[in-house]
Amino acid sequence: MILDNPAASAAFGARLAALVAPGDVVTLSGPLGAGKTSVARGLLAALGLAGEAPSPSFAIVQPYDVPEVRMPVLHIDLYRIDDPEEIDELGLDEAASDSVLVVEWPERAPGWWPYALALTLEMLPDGSRRLTAAVPPGWKARWQQI
What we know:
- The protein is α/β, with parallel strands linked by helices.
- It has a single domain (2-137), classed as Rossmann fold (3-Layer(aba) Sandwich), CATH 3.40.50.
- Helix content is 22%, strand content 23%.
- It is built from four helices and seven strands; from the N terminus they run βαβαββαβββα.
- It has helices spanning 6-17, 36-46, 92-96, 140-143, and strands at 2-3, 25-29, 61-64, 73-77, 100-104, 117-123, 129-134.
- It has a seven-stranded mixed β-sheet.
- α1 (6-17) packs across α2 (36-46).
């Protein structure tokens, strides 16, 4: 799928928001500036977040809860994680069952989310982004609605 600009990335995130449920994990991979946060912001806005979501680069985990959004979401940015063992300290296992996890830079924690909808953004020479997806069994029917 080609996303022409940041607005298209946010619109994709909004379509994704209509399909996520607590317990889902969506990972976003790609180089700096590829649009990972734009997709996450589109998802959060469609779930009801007023205003622009900050990038969780420094906080690592930015939680959103009802009534701020329709369902709990943890927006996670693992860019500053040097050792996957640091993830244990974030307490994500406890939150995973009742929240949607949106994880940027999942390659910093290989093997942590084997059943995630794994999205990869690639920057193209014309400034657009190519989005590819590894769709796990639990997402097959929902992905057809994108």
